[in-house]
Amino acid sequence: TSIFIPFHLSHSSFQSPTSCRYYGNHSRSATSRAKTSITPARFFEYDDNNHAAFLMFLSTSAHLGLVMEWYTIIAGVNVLLLVFRVFKLMHFQARMGLLTRTLSHAGTDLFHFIVLFMITFVGFSFMAYLLFGHQLREFMNLGESMITCFEMIVGNYEVGRQLDYV
């Protein structure tokens, strides 16, 4: 919540209008329209100052979304590091430390497996993106293609979904 405070303070001056002038029947020409009354907002008048503020609001909102995405990634890495610290703390006890000793002895083999797996996985994901990206939603970009390929690996892929064309 503290990330939204500077955003709110910098954009508190922007207010979207809740009402606007109604110009009557829209089948008449623009020159013959008469302003009749104030009505709840359905058709907005164009206002240069408000438009610039709205574009600035959209730009800052997009930036805030990117910041939140990075915050989520960093929080996930933080949780992973905390799990590793718990494993390190379990090392003092003989039975609980069996896991950490096993992982430390298998570290080089695990590293080589992960490197080869990622090369193969990214290769297959990229191939699926190139072959099926123009036809199937699941492969429309590289990120979606990687998610779909991962779902296939863990067995969580529904074959009927592939008929959902772009």
UniProtKB/TrEMBL annotation:
Family annotation (InterPro entries): PKD1_2_channel, Polycystin
Membrane topology: Multi-pass membrane protein
Domain Polycystin cation channel PKD1/PKD2, residue spans: 67-157
Compartments (UniProt record): Membrane
Record protein name field: Polycystin cation channel PKD1/PKD2 domain-containing protein
Entry annotated with the keyword Transmembrane helix: yes
Source organism: Palpitomonas bilix
TM regions (residue ranges): 70-89, 110-132
Record's signal peptide: none
Keywords: Membrane, Transmembrane, Transmembrane helix
GO CC terms, sorted: membrane
